[in-house]
Structure formats: structure tokens, C-alpha cells
């Protein structure tokens, strides 16, 4: 009996291996926080690169050369490519250095001035529902035969036009944190900027005064 008591007291005071047990309790939370920091940091870095890339691409697109084309020779084959496509390729290349497995989408819309950016076409809202319907008259400013919530025209526009650039980056998260917190593994980052094209020519008023009516 005395021997048993002696062994019990010795084991009670023995703390060898306690650190391992304590670490086993805190390890899941520690690694979860660590992955969260890495995932958040990677997302911030990717957003920073995307913002820088879109600023460079936007500045290049304000030049007269952006609306033209270039003849290139690839593997002995002569190909004519739009300069704006070359600008987009450089943008994507800059992003791929950081997110090689992402998908990049570029959207450009041109406007006559800054006031027009993402503005809806003017219409008479007879029923005050903020929607062009019930044969309400509207001005087809972009001449596409339908009322639009955004009056912008697709593309880089012309001299002195204002262009809205939006780049969307979609990629799969590289850390499995999403499985533990019940979210999606797809990360989407968007970046936008608005610049006016260089005054390389006379600006054309690309708005129409044609009056049409919305669908019933």
C-alpha cells in the first residue's frame, strides 16, 4: 500500500509530456488562425497587384494607339492584333506572376463625360417605379434600340472620352480554411478605375437624341 501511495505521489508531481498534451489542445485553433492570416494576406497582395495592373493598363488605353492595331510575327506567322488586346495581355501577365491559376476578365465602357459614368438612359418615369416600362418614352443615347441602366458604350471610346475600366480576378483559394469555416473556395476580387482619354483628336458626341418607348 505504501509503495502504491509513493508511486501515485511521484506520478502526480511528474509534468513530463504536459506540454505535448497542452499543444494538442491548442494546435487546431493555432493552425486555423495561421491559415486565416496566410489566406487574408495572399488576398490583400493579389488585390494590390490587381490595382497596380489596372492602373497601368488604363493609362496605356488612354492613348490613341490603344484603338489601333499592331502587326506581330509569331513563329514565322504574321498576325494583326488589336493594341487593346496587347494591353490586356500585359495586365494578365502581371497578375499571373502572383495568381498563376486565376481567371481575369476585363470590361471597358466609354462615356462622353464623367457625369455619364454608370448613368441610366433618360426616360419619363410616368408611374414613378424607377423602371422604364409601360411604353414610357426614353432617349436611346447609345443607339442600341433598347433602354439601358448604363448608358456606356463597350470599348475604349475615342479622344477625350471617359472610360470606366473594371477587372475581375477569380481564383481558387490555396489554403483549405474555407472547409473549416463553411465558405466557398472561390475568391473574387474586383478593381475599377475611371480615366479620360488623351486629347489626340476632336471628341465626338456619341449620344443619340432618338426617342423610343420602353416595352409594355
Quick take:
Helix content is 35%, strand content 24%.
Describe this structure in words.
With 216 residues, this protein is of the alpha+beta class. It is built from four helices and eight strands. The chain has helices spanning 2-13, 18-61, 83-96, 177-181, and strands spanning 69-74, 77-82, 103-111, 137-139, 153-154, 162-172, 186-196, 211-213. The strands form three sheets. The chain has a four-stranded antiparallel beta sheet, covered by helices on one side. It has a two-stranded antiparallel sheet with strand order 1-2. Helix 2 packs antiparallel against helix 3 (83-96). The longest helix is centred in the N-terminal third of the chain and has 44 residues, at 18-61. The mean pLDDT is 82.
What are its keywords?
216 residues, alpha+beta, 4 helices, 24% strand
Task: Tell me the total number of β-strands.
Answer: 8
Shape: elongated
Strand order of the largest sheet: 5-3-6-7
Q: Main β-sheet, in a few words?
A: 4 strands, antiparallel
Helix content: 25-40%
What's the SSE pattern?
Answer: HHEEHEEEEHEE
- Rounded mean pLDDT score: 82
N-to-C CA distance: 97 Å
Number of helices: 4
As a whole number of angstroms, the C-alpha radius of gyration is 29 Å
* Structural class computed from helices and strand pairing: alpha+beta
Strand content: 15-25%
Low-confidence segments, ≥5 residues, pLDDT <50? none
Amino acid at each position: 500500500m505504501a509503495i502504491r501511495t509513493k508511486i501515485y505521489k511521484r506520478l502526480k508531481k511528474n509534468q513530463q509530456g504536459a506540454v505535448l498534451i497542452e499543444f494538442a489542445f491548442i494546435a487546431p485553433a493555432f493552425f486555423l488562425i495561421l491559415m486565416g492570416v496566410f489566406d487574408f494576406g495572399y488576398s490583400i497582395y493579389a488585390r494590390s497587384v490587381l490595382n497596380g495592373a489596372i492602373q497601368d493598363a488604363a493609362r496605356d488605353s488612354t492613348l490613341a494607339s490603344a484603338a489601333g492595331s499592331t502587326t506581330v510575327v509569331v513563329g514565322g506567322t504574321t498576325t494583326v492584333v488589336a493594341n487593346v488586346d496587347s494591353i490586356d495581355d500585359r495586365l494578365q501577365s502581371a497578375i499571373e506572376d502572383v495568381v498563376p491559376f486565376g481567371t481575369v476578365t476585363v470590361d471597358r465602357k466609354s462615356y462622353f463625360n464623367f457625369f455619364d459614368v454608370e448613368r441610366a438612359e433618360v426616360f419619363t418615369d410616368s408611374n414613378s417605379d424607377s423602371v422604364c416600362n409601360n411604353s414610357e418614352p426614353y432617349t436611346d443615347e447609345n443607339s442600341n434600340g433598347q433602354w439601358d441602366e448604363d448608358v456606356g458604350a463597350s470599348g475604349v471610346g475615342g479622344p477625350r472620352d471617359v472610360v470606366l475600366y473594371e477587372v475581375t480576378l477569380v481564383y481558387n483559394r490555396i489554403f483549405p480554411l474555407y472547409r473549416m469555416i463553411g465558405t466557398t473556395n472561390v475568391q473574387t476580387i474586383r478593381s475599377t478605375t475611371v480615366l479620360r482619354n488623351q486629347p489626340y483628336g476632336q471628341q465626338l458626341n456619341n449620344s443619340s437624341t432618338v426617342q423610343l418607348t420602353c416595352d409594355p
